[in-house]
Design goal:
Helices cover about 40% and strands about 20% of the residues. By secondary structure, the protein is α/β, with parallel strands linked by helices. The protein has 2 domains: about 10-135 and about 275-340, no CATH class; about 135-270 and about 345-370, NAD(P)-binding Rossmann-like Domain (Rossmann fold). Helix 10 links the parallel strand 10 and strand 11. The radius of gyration is 21 Å and the shape is globular.
Length: about 375
Amino acid sequence: MAKIVKNPVDFGFILHPLSTEDVFRKLAFMRSWPESMVNSAIRLLPPLMTSQITGIASPYGRIEGCFVGVTLTSEQMLQLPSRVTLGKIIAAGKKAARAGARIVGLGAMTAVVGDAGITVARNLDVAVTTGNSYTVATAIQGTEKAAQMMGLDLGKAQVTVLGATGSIGRVCALLLARKVNQLTLVARNELRLEKLAEEILDKTGLVAHVSADVKHSLRSADVVVAVSSAADSLIEPEDLKPGAVVCDVARPRDVSVQVARERDDVLIIEGGVVEVPGDAVNFNFNFGFPPRMAYACMAETMILALEKRFESYSLGRELSLDRVEEITSLAEKHGFKLAGFRSFERPVTSEVITSIKLKAQQKRQAQRASLSTV
């Protein structure tokens, strides 16, 4: 640890390999091993101090942090007993605390397993956040920007929230209800859907439609915010209309990887990529982003550290709309801003979006021509 973290840090962020390919980036000698051996080996490894994060600076202060790696893949985190996974996460949090961190952020599946950070926070002497509040904020910002780039007017678009009755889905629906005129809420429990629709009507004046029919709702949607808690993907290639925009906030993903492979006429994003303030920001670790760019969950931890809000913030399954609005305001105060998109671990450039938009136009024209000949 001393070789990587030279100075005491203000915050820590826990990450993990999404797959064994990510493991090989750090432990290249394992590439020749059978996958079963790799999985067994990384399960036994302790948390790894991955890098020190330097150069984060806003007009209100400077902070440093560290990345701590839990050596479990996404698949392992879903399959192993939660006590095993949570034990690894807690050990990583303690490692960050020993490096000086006063708040620890949970990344990717570490924010999902168990009770979404509550047990981790109870077992640490420092604050913990999942980053979900700022993740929701940037997801809505990203959805707005992506729709605009695809030529969609949110005020006229059919917008659907998949998994609307969950804690994240509810907050997304309430935020979107202020911006759209056609909103469909989709979930399995129709009684809870009706209750949410009443809340939206009371708070925003918008009459939202409700549906338990996922496939039907998707096929008529121009914009989808997907936040279900389903174990398997819900959105397949045949479910989306040409030119549709989907912001997939769910983990595991709601959008099947087949959509990315088969539909070059729809835009799938995973929420926004955030630009971190500071001319000399250095994560000292390559997680596939351009310089100074980070996931929103990472950024929430940084924002709270800059604000010296060393308190557990976004925990559990019940998100607070007030906290989403507050972290959005704090992000603006410290100079964090939406900077780009990701899709299935790859950047989505403006050139890619232009290509998708063109393919969507061509497909719609072909569909109209086909109908006119019938």
